[in-house]
Write a structure and sequence with these properties.
The chain is α/β, with parallel strands linked by helices and 173 residues long. Helix content is 47%, strand content 13%.
């Protein structure tokens, strides 16, 4: 795995109003929990902190449905810790997107379970209604459109967007 970027050095001299991170990896690609944590927590937070020092007032990031810093599930705990660390950086506006399983092109790096989940998602999504909608698979292009839509929002605060809100924001973009 490549060394983590030196975000402060890369951001030095930049003047930023907003920052976006969709950075993430898989346990298989990372190879260990420590390497996974280095990408999905440390690199995201280091990038956001550098952007904040460069003047960014707004941060948009992609997390995961079920993210919870106190979760027993390692993946969800790391995502929750990342969200909490971003909150502590003091952005005027923080948009956290929490999509379900992302559908879309990603090449051969998808695990077998992801490929199966994506293949059966049209049927499974039919049963994930109401409060369960947040767990439904969602197209990555809707998440991308929502990122762009969030950048146009001005209200201060911390906003967590699950699938229903992701679809609504993407439709208005």
């Amino acid at each position: 795995m490549a060394p983590a970027p030196d975000w402060p050095a890369l951001a030095s001299g930049l003047a930023a109003d907003a920052a976006v991170s969709a950075l993430g990896t898989t346990m298989r690609a990372a190879g260990s929990e420590a390497a996974f944590r280095a990408v999905d927590l440390a690199s995201v937070v280091d990038f956001a902190a550098a952007a904040r020092r460069a003047g960014a007032r707004h941060m948009v990031t992609v997390s995961s449905v079920g993210a919870d810093a106190s979760s027993a599930n390692f993946y969800l705990r790391i995502k929750g810790e990342m969200e909490r660390a971003l909150e502590d950086l003091g952005f005027e506006r923080l948009d956290i997107l929490r999509p379900g399983l992302l559908r879309g092109e990603r090449g051969a790096e998808r695990r077998l379970g992801e490929r199966v989940g994506i293949a059966i998602s049209p049927v499974v999504n039919l049963f994930l209604r109401g409060r369960w909608d947040r767990f439904a698979a969602i197209d990555a292009d809707l998440v991308a459109a929502t990122i762009a839509a969030c950048l146009g929002q001005g209200e201060a605060g911390i906003f967590r967007h699950h699938n229903r809100e992701i679809r609504r924001l993407a439709a208005g973009f």
